[in-house]
Amino acid sequence: MSNEKPVQPEVDQEIDLALEKALGAPQAPPAPYVYDYKTSPNRQVVMPKTVPLSGLNAYLAEKAALEAAEEAKWQKAQADYAAAKAKAEAEGAPEPKAPVRVQPKKEPDLTVPVPSEAKDPDLLRLMALLGDGVEEAFEQSGELTCQVARERLLETLKLCREDAALKYEMLADETATHFPAAKDFAFSVVYHLTSISRSKRLRLRILIPEGFEPQSAVQVYAGANWLEREIFDMFGIRFQNHPDMTRILCPEDWEAHPLRKEYPVVGWGQRDVDFREDRSGMLNRIALEKAGQLGINLKRPKAE
Amino acid sequence: MFKHQEMEINMGPQHPSTHGVMRLKLKLDGEVVTECRPIIGYLHRGVEKICENKTFAQGQIWSDRLDYCSAVANNLGWAEACEKLMGITVPRKAQYVRTLLAEFNRLASHLIWLATHALDIGAMTVFLYAFREREDILDINESYCGSRLTTTAFRIGGIPQELPEGFEQKVRTFLAKFPACIDEYENMLNENRIWKKRTIGVGKLSAEDAIALGVTGPVLRAAGVAYDIRKAFPYAAYSEMQFDVPTKPEADTYARYLVRMEEMRQSVRIIQQCIDGLPEGPIMAKIPKLLKTEVNEIYHPTEAPKGEIGYYLVGEKGGAGPYRFHVRAPGLLNLQSLPKMVEGSLIADVIAAIGTLDVVLGEIDR
């Protein structure tokens, strides 16, 4: 045992002194500390500009527009060719090249799934039973989708479960999607139903605006309880007649709803200091400043 | 002096039997559970949000980390969901290899379940036996893709490489040995008086309740419902395989144990068929390097060891990654049935019920 004092490198003392000079006296942390993520450049969110909502009507409209554009382009190319040909003939120059219609390249193992008209008996039955409650029904990728009016959701769920020809006994999944670019709705909520006895699957979909509270599916399928709590947690959609509308994955006091598109991916509490590149020690100083605001003591205690 | 009083206690978040970080708020009347409220979310990493900001190929890596005990099954679901979204046809050889590895993964997952479940209830020996065989499966994983647990075994459109040299021999050696190992586990447990007392009649969940709550997998099959996605909605190469779906009508912990043991035997059968009938041909579909989607929305369910794992993907026009990604985790809906199982039973049975549900918090919290 020696009586030597612990070795304290002078450089550290200098840094500490410089820090105290730079930061001033330690301040009391303003509580609760919330990082202003909107001002930080690497946390800015790129909002989606399109509404990728699958549907037969939208697909047909888009296809018609594309075909019309293609046709117009072809007509123009042909007209240009005719004009160029006439000009070449008049001048005695060699004939220009005739335009060729470009065929889309085909990949051998890739067939883009497109929506098609509802032919499945389940969809037809739903359309017959609900009448104008069905907004859209189509098939895509071998899956059945039925978009119903949001007010008639509960009725549809009951029908799907109890109708003898449908008999969808299980709610496999329920989730939502945020569409900030859409005009007359903000979210789609989808219900994936499974019929165990008939080995069939069906997707029900409703479109809801901000603030709309759909009826809870717990009234028909008990398993929707946690799924709807998760939707509330992640999107902020509340459900009417839900037995326990609380957060499930995030802490109870969490701000905002993470799966909305305006929420940044690089989130709160993430360290934004890259210490590997901290040559001048500036980042370390920023970190200490932040730590001071958070009430964390990062400074090395001084030896007596 | 003595008075009747209900007591509220916390089981977890750190408890050896919760297999992760899960908290149960229990209300007790003596030793009888009157109310149970599971509190989850301690392992929430925001996988869905992260994957929405990554490409499809990058998302594959995150699927490993959902249910880390059955990474291959998650990889399979992710790869097939992306293929369904974009309309890709996968070569037959790749389908066979996928089926083979997914079944190996089912064995590994069931072995880890058996080991920890038995350990929770007090049977220490089985733990060591089961981990011995699991090690062989992890070695097979390692020889195929280099990693043991987080495999990232498949690619969108097929599999990344041909099976390595000596792979078939390894698989055949394992298949020759493993059925005797299952008999060994069953010899230790099937007629074990303590095991039977701790499991028979414990954690009952009727078929009606299970279906209403969205419970899938072995827990549903042990309630007498022969619902297996491999049979009901065949994917990969399962439509070409011969296998049975084991069911039991008792709907208790013991029945679930028997169902899982029988499932392991069926997995061995499937692996045998895969390795015997492995076709020749390409392993990767002819697709462009950079995959782009059209507007589409799909839900692809597959039978993971724990139940139905479903991937919900929304694709946008020209998108290199999903616009919206959601995992229907089997563990989440299975765990939801825990209060129904344990309310009215003894507190010791809660341990058995958690074990029988085979929860992995990585996929529940995502």
Strand and helix map with partners:
The complex is a heterodimer of chains A (304) and B (366).
Chain A: H1 10-23, H2 56-91, E1 116-117, H3 121-130, E2 134-140, E3 143-148, H4 153-162, E4 170-178, E5 187-195, E6 200-208, H5 224-235, H6 282-294
Parallel strand pairs in A: 3-6
Antiparallel strand pairs in A: 1-2, 2-3, 4-5, 5-6
Chain B: E1 7-11, E2 23-29, E3 32-39, H1 47-52, H2 56-64, H3 71-86, H4 92-121, H5 124-145, H6 167-189, H7 193-199, H8 207-212, H9 218-221, H10 229-232, H11 253-276, E4 296-304, E5 307-315, E6 324-328, H12 330-336, H13 338-342, H14 347-357, H15 361-365
Helix pairs in contact in B: 2-3, 3-4, 4-5, 4-11, 4-14, 5-6, 6-11
Q: What does this protein look like?
A:
The complex is a heterodimer of chains A (304) and B (366). The two termini of chain A are 18 Å apart. Chain A has helices at 10-23, 56-91, 121-130, 153-162, 224-235, 282-294; strands at 116-117, 134-140, 143-148, 170-178, 187-195, 200-208. By secondary structure, chain A is α+β, with helices and mostly antiparallel strands. Chain A is built from 6 helices and 6 strands. The model of chain A is unreliable at 28-35 (pLDDT under 50). In chain A, strands 1-2-3-6-5-4 form a 6-stranded mixed β-sheet. Among the domains of chain A are: 55-101, no CATH class; 116-235, NADH:ubiquinone oxidoreductase Nqo5 subunit (Beta Polymerase, domain 2, 2-Layer Sandwich); 274-298, no CATH class. By secondary structure, chain B is mainly alpha-helical. Chain B has one domain (57-290, 330-365): Cytochrome-c3 Hydrogenase, chain B (Orthogonal Bundle), CATH 1.10.645.10. Chain B contains 15 helices and 6 strands. In chain B, the strands form 2 sheets. A 3-stranded antiparallel β-sheet of chain B has the order 1-2-3. Chain B starts with 6 loop residues before the first strand and ends with a helix. Chains A and B meet through strand 4, strand 5 and helix 5 of A and helix 1, helix 3, helix 8, strand 4 and strand 5 of B.
